[in-house]
Each structure stands twice: as structure tokens, then as C-alpha cells.
Design a protein that fits this description.
The structure is a single chain. A two-stranded antiparallel ribbon has the order 1-2. The chain is mainly alpha-helical and 183 residues long. It has one domain (2-178). Helix 1 packs antiparallel against helix 2 and helix 1 (2-21) runs parallel beside helix 3. The protein is elongated. The protein is 79% helix and 2% strand.
């Protein structure tokens, strides 16, 4: 369910990027119409900011619990794999560990896609036809470009932003813990 909420925001960010890049197509060509069209796109952007904020508020503690549990599962399973004495144990532990890693990867991949789409909004505005617009529209676009520099992020509690590096950090921490146990 939460992946659907994240994908919804990612899709809206992609559509918003297209609208920012081709905003003059959504108007009848008059400067007032272009300005109001841009204003509506900015309102959509503000609505998306609020939506991502609500999703983050609703899911950040879930993501913290998920992070702790999955980190524990990866660590314990990796420890069991290294201590396994027969093939039967390996046949059980390796698929379990891989399934946990895949679950974590899927979650973090979708959250990272939202981050990437939101960081791309400024470039999409820049690729648009902003240089042929009135000074009022150009100034508004500059303000919007400065506002879209802050990407959409989801966090783990109040501790860290979720990105692909988090999976690598989680795996490194599990490996370090296992090595520490072996000493």
C-alpha cells in the first residue's frame, strides 16, 4: 500500500515536470493565460508538497520499524549463513536473506525514484520555453525553480532520509556486526 502512495507521488511529480516544461501548451497563448496556467501548475506543485509531507508523517515511524526489523533479519541471517555447517541450513537461510534484501531494495528503490523525479523538476523548467515569455512569467519561473531545489523525501523516523545508499549502509552495518561477532 505504501509503495502505491509513493508511486502516486512519483507519477504526479513526473506529470508536473512535463507541465512545467510545456506550460505554454496548456494555455491559449495570451500572456495572462500563460501566467494563470503557470499559477495553476504551481498550485499543483504545492499540493504535491503537502501530499508528500502527509505521506512522510504517516509512514516515517513505520519505515523506522521496518528498517530496524529488516536490519536485524539481515544481520541474524548473515550470521547464520556464515555459521552453517550443512547444506540444509544454507538452503534455508540464503533464500530468506535474499528475500529480505529484495523487500528492502523494492521499498528504497521506489522512494529513491520519488527523490529523483523531484530533483529533476528544476531541469524540466529550464528545458521549457521560459525565455520567450514575459518578464512576469520568467520571474515566476525563477521563483519556482528556487523552490523546487528542495526534493521530496521520505524519512526513517526523524533520523535519516531514505535513498539507495541506505540499503548499502544497512548491508555494511550487518557485515560489520557479523565480523565483530567472529572476533
Amino acid at each position: 500500500m505504501f509503495i502505491s502512495m509513493v508511486n502516486f507521488a512519483t507519477a504526479r511529480a513526473g506529470i508536473l515536470g512535463y507541465k512545467f516544461e510545456h506550460f505554454e501548451k496548456y494555455s491559449d497563448g495570451k500572456s495572462e493565460s500563460i501566467f494563470y496556467c503557470l499559477r495553476n501548475i504551481v498550485l499543483e506543485h504545492q499540493d504535491l508538497i503537502r501530499y508528500v509531507g502527509r505521506v512522510n508523517d504517516a509512514l516515517k515511524w513505520y519505515f523506522l520499524g521496518e528498517f530496524v526489523v529488516k536490519s536485524y533479519h539481515i544481520t541474524v541471517t548473515l550470521s547464520n549463513v556464515l555459521e552453517a555447517t550443512n547444506w540444509r541450513d544454507l538452503i534455508y537461510y540464503i533464500p530468506f536473506m535474499l528475500s529480505v534484501v529484495v523487500q528492502v531494495f523494492v521499498i528504497y528503490y521506489h522512494v529513491n525514484e520519488l527523490f529523483l523525479k523531484s530533483t529533476n523538476l528544476g531541469m524540466r523548467i529550464y528545458k521549457g520555453n521560459w525565455y520567450d515569455q514575459t518578464s512576469e512569467v520568467t520571474k515566476s519561473l525563477l521563483i519556482v525553480m528556487s523552490r523546487v531545489q528542495r526534493p521530496f523525501v521520505l524519512s526513517i523516523g526523524n533520523f535519516r532520509v531514505i535513498d539507495n545508499d541506505l540499503l548499502v549502509s544497512m548491508t555494511q552495518a550487518a557485515y560489520t556486526f557479523v565480523l565483530y561477532q567472529m572476533i
